[in-house]
Design a protein that fits this description.
globular; 0% strand; 104 residues
């Protein structure tokens, strides 16, 4: 399944406009469109469940999602450092929360 997803999931760039809220809305909408449009992405909840149940087999899945994850964490981290988010904001947790919501 990982092989099928890795060849089919495009990674469009996230355009930063300087408006953090608008950029986040665009990113979430793009992710929803991406996941909704591709039949193989319907398997993502099952893959996530397997990753939770069998964490030793998560390497390939982590490699698949890491570029997308980094592309979202990076602007959030920059916003945190620039004071647009509270200094103690856990940007990785923010991405995990939005990703989990979109995928489930």
């Amino acid at each position: 399944m990982i092989e099928a997803l890795s060849g089919e999931v495009p990674l469009p760039p996230i355009h930063e406009t300087g408006d953090l809220e608008a950029d986040l809305r665009t990113t979430v909408c793009l992710t929803i469109e991406l996941v909704s449009a591709m039949p193989t992405c319907l398997t993502l909840p099952a893959l996530l469940a397997d990753a939770i149940e069998h964490p030793t087999g998560t390497g390939a899945f982590a490699e698949l999602i890491e570029p997308r994850r980094v592309s979202v964490v990076r602007p959030l981290e920059r916003a945190r450092l620039e004071g647009q988010l509270p200094p103690d904001t856990d940007t990785s947790l923010m991405v995990d929360t939005y990703s989990g919501t979109v995928v489930s």
